[in-house]
Design brief:
By secondary structure, this protein is mainly α. It contains nine helices and no strands.
Amino acid sequence: MAITEQEKEVFRSIGNNEKGAIEAVYKENYSLIQHFVISNNGTEDDARDIFQEAMMVLYEKSRSPEFELTCQIRTYLYSVCRRLWLKKLQYSRRMESQVENYDKIVAVEEDLEQHDKLTQQYLTMRTAMGKIGEPCKSLIEAFYVHRKNMHEIASFFGYTNADNAKNQKYKCLVRLKKLFFAQYKNN
């Protein structure tokens, strides 16, 4: 995907040391890098270190008048993190024993496509949850997000027993699925 004017503006803002832009880039991209590092024999601390180094590289590049960003910030950060992580693995000799070969590490574009697809599905689900209405939204959140059991849900929502709450949850899920897939097909 080509770089947009908005991405260029964020890149310039990073070069101007604007805290909001740096925080936004961090929030939008850290989970992708964390997933990559942990999936390739790393820890959360490793992911934080690698991401911090990549952010420093991005900052330095944004301050350099000779450098022109030609891809999305996400793609650039992912590539930098990937190289830094592979160098670290190679240096520590973990590369030979735990990462059998480079082919097993997913290519940048494939990993980004998968992450984008999951992000799109998440946004579609969030939109569907916004459209489902009450009490379905609260009931589904109580069960799946807050991990309440059916007895707690029945008591909270005023159902006569857990079976009635379970039936209502099922009906709500059917409605949610219809909303989700209707939107998913349109995207």
